[in-house]
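Same chain as my last thread, 575 residues:
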Amino acid sequence: MKELMLGNKAAARGLYEAGCAFVSSYPGTPSTEITEEAVKYDEIYCEWAPNEKVAMEAAFGASLAGKRSFCGMKHVGLNVAADPLYTMSYTGVNAGLVIGVADDAGMHSSQNEQDSRHHAISSKVPMLEPADSAEAREFAMLAYEISEEYDTPVILKMCTRVSHCQSIVETGERTEHSKEYVKDIPKYVMTPANAIRKHPKVEERTARLIEYAEKSPLNRVEKGDGKIGIVCDSTSYLYVKEVFGESADVLKIGMANPLPVQLFKDFAASVEELYVVEELDPVIENHMKTIGLCPKGKDMLPITGEFSQNILRNAFGKEVPGGLSTDEEIPVRPPAMCAGCPHRGLFYVLAKNKCTVLGDIGCYTLAAGAPLNAIEMTLCMGASVSATHGYVKALGQEASEHTVAVLGDSTFMHSGMTGLADIAYNESASTVIILDNSITGMTGHQQNPTTGLNIKGEPAGKVDLEALVKAMGIKRVVVVDPYNLEECDKAVKEELKADEPSVIISRRPCALLKTVKHNPPIYVNPDKCKSCKACMKIGCPAISMKDKAVIDPTQCVGCGVCTQLCKFDAMEGGK
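reply #2:
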């Protein structure tokens, strides 16, 4: 049966057909839909883990038990999971274990633009790299065969375009796989004595995988006229085929690690000019240079951002077709927190109090933009808490009176807890604000350990945030409603004055949740409005100025935050 599928959906289909029985992931764009699609198959147990490290360790446990397993994440999530990954390369697996990682060239939804191929090289783990949805399914299935044949975890590297573009996929039937667990201390217990014996085996495995890469259909040559030879991978292959058609000789790399040697040399000898087209770092290009070849690559193509057909046309001196344009200058429309976002009121209070706000990863990071300009640092998941501790310890009491950490409930469970433990243990007068919006908002409303629901929306164990932070040694814990500006202002002022660690929980469900019932929209009484623009200070996209303030009733959820800013009672309704 043929079906048009997203790359992520196709990858999930490959997991299903390959007999995968266990999936543990942490949501991260552009990888999230792999797990969201896998959960639709009753044969696969699926879960959201608190973070990527836990997800990978859980998947390892399922593999150890003899069930084919998978864990998914975005590229920065692989950094979090690097600890188990590098040692799993030594232990190997029992049943097949596949790690799905999705890179984000162009940084559409990420804080950096790293190239995950480096993790595969450093951990000495094979990596497969599909170029479209059909290959996503095929490579996911093949990854399990390689994993069990070579006793290794296998990374399936997706990217934004492969994950979120659609192409035709021909589906098949599921084949069940299961292996018996056998106690093997030298294999699985990585004490130094056992690990020392394991490292040479990893190198032997790499040598065998290189032999496999030389002849594997994952890496294939497509003949052209013999003049230009292009080595490419992933979406770069699709751009090359669109720009050059059948004229160029193409060596398509589907196995990003380890890379072959003789295959490259033979291909180079068969063409007059040799090029490498690959997004981000020159991984393939550097490998080819190491084995004595001299391709052109990053000297003509960018090392940052996504490629496109026209980038290739420009680089190779081809004509770039004209595009449609408008004579009118269109104003930029930067992303903003949604109308009724529960975070908006809290950030308004922090900005009004001139707080130094160290932020975190989540949709609330948008508070760094105008008009709030409230967040001054965002590094990685959980860093707001640890960085605030260091900031306060470095600058002393004066800093503690105006500095706060801000992070979401899911981010706190991901990696904020350890930072809070550091604050409690080392007794810094730091104030941490947990934005509890009852969901993992940025990646599309996934459940997390604080919501009380599992990946299927069924009742699940629920972490009590107040009890948790108190158990960690935080004595000062206060809960506020971010729609109540006076309440938030009072709590922020009081906790910043405290000479001990404190936590403020800002609790209000995400305005976009289907379970949230909204008030009628607020409207502006033009007779009372003085055009003072006080209501514009919160940056709500439902409010605009057209001589007088105007509220778009199709966006307004009646949260009432703007009514608390208007000194002339011009904002009416909403109750």
